[in-house]
Design brief:
InterPro entries: D-isomer_2-hydroxyacid_DH, D-isomer_2_OHA_DH_cat_dom, D-isomer_DH_NAD-bd, NAD(P)-bd_dom_sf. Helices cover 35% and strands 13% of the residues. By secondary structure, the protein is an alpha/beta fold. The protein has a six-stranded parallel beta sheet. A five-stranded parallel beta sheet has the order 2-1-3-4-5, sandwiched between helices. The chain is globular and about 65 Å long.
């Protein structure tokens, strides 16, 4: 191919790319690469990405506002009302997460913007992780690992006894898709299940409590699987922890602000609850310093969804929702915005 022919080939490729449906990508530079497969998406869409441009995000969005119909929100990147106001033509927000508290759903509803979520892509992996955190806290798996690595085993230092998993009364806060999968797994371990949700589920065989305090009073373990809303913010407060009691354990794979973290630290420090397994925090990625020294607390970096299988399925779901939108077909995982 001659020198003068190469630019012609490149311009043809660019022209083909520009004919693809345009999708605005909003993502933080710190988001792990497996949340966002650019090469996979570029095979189907022309990506408009502020991180590929040197100009400020605000002016970049303003420049592309008229042409953007669909927005891909990567991980928990904030989509505020201010951001939405810069996009007057926007009709769809595709979220790559199950939780949607980082998106201004009220503004989307007001403007008639449809939102999709990750649906059930992460359900089984998050449920597995919740059970893993509980086993770790009760049986002190991480603490045992630390003991061996610190050479304390060889010194015959005494190591505290763990707690048997089977026989525990587990209260699940939010018996949706993930909560139901957690329940199924723990039933097989010999635990009894009760739950608290916005509404009682007649088809569910587990006891229902209308308040979290009542659930805590009748549970040894609380597992938080609900979404974060104004109503569920700090749903685990001082009163709930008191109701749970000194032998109680809290597992959170929902959102950090479901728990009053300052109160949780106090209860753990004072031995007023037995332990906690936390995958999420109030001020991520910052974690309360006091938690680092506690052997009865297991900490994870918001990683419950991190499996090869779940992210492969997520990429297909994102592409499927975008293709459905641009083809005027039913979306795969539309979210309820009420």
């Amino acid at each position: 191919m001659g020198y003068h022919q190469k630019p012609q080939y490149l311009s043809k490729t660019l022209e083909q790319d520009l004919l693809l449906p345009r999708v605005l990508v909003l993502r933080s530079p710190s988001v792990p690469s497996f949340f966002f497969s650019k090469s996979h998406l570029q095979a189907h869409f022309h990506l408009v990405d502020p991180l590929d441009s040197p100009e400020p995000t605000h002016s970049f969005l303003s420049r592309h506002a008229a042409s953007v119909l669909a927005l891909l929100c990567v991980a928990s990147t904030r989509v505020s009302s201010e951001t939405l106001s810069l996009l007057p033509s926007l009709k769809l927000v595709v979220a790559s997460s199950a939780g949607l508290d980082h998106i201004d759903l009220g503004e989307c509803r007001r403007r008639g913007i449809t939102v999709t979520s990750a649906g059930q892509v992460f359900t089984e992996d998050v449920a597995d992780f919740a059970v893993g955190l509980l086993i770790d806290v009760l049986r002190r798996v991480s603490a045992s690992d630390g003991c061996v690595r610190a050479r304390l085993w060889a010194e015959k230092r005494p190591f505290p006894l763990g707690v048997k998993l089977g026989g525990n009364r587990v209260g699940i806060v939010g018996l949706g898709r993930i909560g139901s999968e957690v329940a199924k797994r723990l039933i097989d371990f010999g635990c009894s299940i009760a739950y608290c949700s916005r509404k009682e589920k007649p088809s569910v065989p587990y006891p229902y409590y209308s308040t979290v305090s009542e659930l805590a009073t009748n549970s040894d373990v609380l597992i938080l699987c609900c979404s974060l809303t104004k109503e569920t913010h700090h749903i685990i407060n001082k009163g709930v922890m008191e109701a749970l009691g000194k032998e109680g354990v809290i597992i959170n794979i929902g959102r950090g602000a479901l728990i009053d973290e300052k109160e949780l630290v106090k209860f753990l420090q004072q031995g007023q609850i037995l332990g906690a397994g936390l995958d999420v925090y109030e001020n991520e990625p910052h974690v309360s310093q006091e938690l680092f020294a506690m052997e009865n607390v297991v900490l994870a970096p918001h990683a419950a969804v991190y499996t090869l299988e779940s992210f492969a399925a997520l990429q297909e779901l994102v592409v499927g929702n975008l293709k459905a939108f641009f083809s005027n077909k039913p979306l795969l995982t539309p979210a309820q915005l009420e």
